[in-house]
């Protein structure tokens, strides 16, 4: 990552914020959007991205020369993109595309970047990351070592078989990153989509609804992938997964910080205008204190994001730090969103504002890229290792 300095990054962030507030937010009432669906429809995605392209804010975290903003600069840009659930979709900073672009940019060959990365950066294609597997099959979820999907070499190709679950954006995606297990260990492949060997069994009905294509159960039946479309070498898949997942966890924190900030703005406006029992809601301590707690936790979450971003920018993989940030930020933003719903009462649980959707989306965020409890367990293991290492022999 080369970075461009804080002032230009701040200018990009300001342009993104203005675009989301002025252009994207009015689309939240678009009749094409269903409150409980499988994400915004494809024609709406194309329409929003055309407007972002015209405004010069499409894929704002990747510069025209292909270089990537630093993680600290990326935070400045991704937070305002999240001010609307449609914002990351419109400006092309959403998951899983943002993480997939990062990974391909880091480890893809020149040929693979031109073929798979270029259309993603241009906003002309969406992507999917095929790692998680159905629990009913005993497959990989929070424990990727349980991966059942197999890959075996066959001449100039690898042949992949297995099933995947909760694959975000698979429906409508043009680029796929598929993880499978060889005799040497985990492997990662870039594939063109759609492919008849990759079949969507069903798109799940889930609590969240902001990601195009929703979340699918996938069957992979004798998928043939040319050898040169493997990322790295056989057995290096987990290493590349960590290259992707540490920044991706942090990117989730950035985007949903923007959404929680917007929910707090809406709840604040409601509390400052709505009267009950002879005075404004905000003048009741029960409400005023909740807004104060929101302000504190939003700032704490911002500081945690920036701290972890600095570690990643300094060259550390930051697996431990990104786990800490994922836990702290997701749980804090959940509390913020919950307070916003409570402050607004019946209006807060209705679709009249996006507060209800933000609550649902952030609830799912506590599971994305590893549930809170898995990250805490991982951190506890590190605490134990560090303690034992420090003991005299």
Could you characterize the architecture of this molecule?
- The protein is α+β, with helices and mostly antiparallel strands and 393 residues long.
- It folds into three domains: 6-94, Orthogonal Bundle (Butyryl-Coa Dehydrogenase, subunit A, domain 1), CATH 1.10.540.10; 127-232, Butyryl-CoA Dehydrogenase, subunit A, domain 2 (Beta Barrel); 238-390, Butyryl-CoA Dehydrogenase, subunit A, domain 3 (Up-down Bundle).
- It is 49% helix and 15% strand.
- It is built from eleven helices and nine strands.
- The chain has a four-stranded antiparallel sheet, with no helix packed on it. Strands 1-4-5 form a three-stranded mixed sheet, with helices on one face.
- Helix 5 (97-107) packs antiparallel against helix 6 (110-121), helix 5 packs antiparallel against helix 7 and helix 9 (319-344) packs antiparallel against helix 11.
- The longest helix has 37 residues, at 237-273.
Let me know the average pLDDT: 94
Distance between the termini: 42 Å
Number of strands: 9
CATH architecture of the largest domain: Up-down Bundle
Number of helices: 11
| CATH topology value of the largest domain | Butyryl-CoA Dehydrogenase, subunit A, domain 3
Radius of gyration: 21 Å
How much helical structure, as a percent, in the residues? 40-55%
Structural class: alpha+beta
CATH classification, class level of the largest domain: Mainly Alpha
Low-confidence stretches: none
In spatial order, strands of the major sheet run 2-3-7-6
Domains counted in the coordinates: how many? 3
CATH superfamily of the largest domain: Butyryl-CoA Dehydrogenase, subunit A, domain 3
Strand content: 15-25%
